[in-house]
Amino acid sequence: MIRLIAALALVPALFATAAFGQTVSEATAMNMWCGTAMIAAFANPPPDVPQDQLDAAKAYIDGGNKLIDDARKAYLAANSTEQQIATLQADLLVEVTAALQGSIPSKHTFAECAALIPGLPPPPGGPAPEASSSAAQ
Predict the structure, then answer these.
(1) What is the CA radius of gyration of the chain?
(2) CA atoms of 54 and 39, how far apart (whole Å)
(3) Which of 34, 44, 47, 54 is buried most, with the most CB atoms less than 10 Å from its CB?
(4) What is the pLDDT of residue 76?
């Protein structure tokens, strides 16, 4: 039942992404997806995370916000409305969350997304965990 609900939740994302994909470049769509993935992956660390890992996570979150901001500007330049962008972002959050949980395949790898953000430190806690890697695939 949960899988059915998750699948139904992704239907709007598929339609929204397809509609937006016709008006912006693949790079812009990737920036929006990867920015969302970075924020979703690093925004809620466990309470006992050391400060150096929190600092590294902040760099990923800041980079994700920059990717989203750049993509948002490109969507607006392509005549998307604020409401369309907000809907896309909400739909992408559902999709990215499912990818982080391993419920669906990811569109981009962690390495592909990290490569879009110059100067990132290594992921907090060492190499990207399997869930984060597949989340950004």
Answers:
(1) 15
(2) 13
(3) 34
(4) 96
Q: What is the pLDDT of residue 48?
A: 92
| DSSP one-letter code for 22 | T
9-66 pLDDT tens trace: 444 444 444 444 448 999 999 999 999 999 999 999 999 999 999 999 999 999 999 9
Question: In one letter, which amino acid is 105?
Answer: P
Secondary structure class of 1 (helix, strand, coil) = coil
**Count of positions (residues) in the chain:** 137
Cα-based angle 69, 29, 34 (whole degrees, multiple of 5):
70
Contact present, 99 and 105 (Cβ < 8 Å): yes
Q: Are 74 and 29 in contact (CB under 8 A)?
A: no
